[in-house]
Design brief:
- Helices cover 62% and strands 6% of the residues.
- It has 127 residues and is mostly helical.
- It contains 5 helices and 2 strands, in the order H-H-H-E-H-E-H.
- Strands 1-2 form a two-stranded parallel sheet.
- Helix 3 crosses helix 4 and helix 4 packs parallel to helix 5.
- The model has no long low-confidence stretch (mean pLDDT 83).
Length: 127
Amino acid sequence: MSTHANSLAALRARVERLELQNRLEREKSTLLTVELDETKEELAELKAEQPKPKAQKADHQSDHPSVKPVLLMEDVCTLVCPGGGRILDPFAGTGSTGVAARNKNFDCVLIEQDATMRPVIEDRVRR
């Protein structure tokens, strides 16, 4: 085989490798796009399946501006505290954290600067 034929064969082999690499990169890109789309769909389904209900006025009987849903606070308590632990809420508000802690069998210390909220908190935690 001549030097020219060897160079041509080497060039063809290199072109074939590059074409194969390009095809693999396109397939990887397509695969990643499909996986990303599937993940987005799964996330949307999960969000649709498990909406967290908003706190209802009937639950707390107050005009507090930022009442947290008990189910949300149950999730937070479970995430941040070991089982049987103690939760500290220095901004108790209407006592949602206290209700959540009681529901999940945690000890809880609630602190609220607004003394008018005490009856609301006590009522909610006792229910």
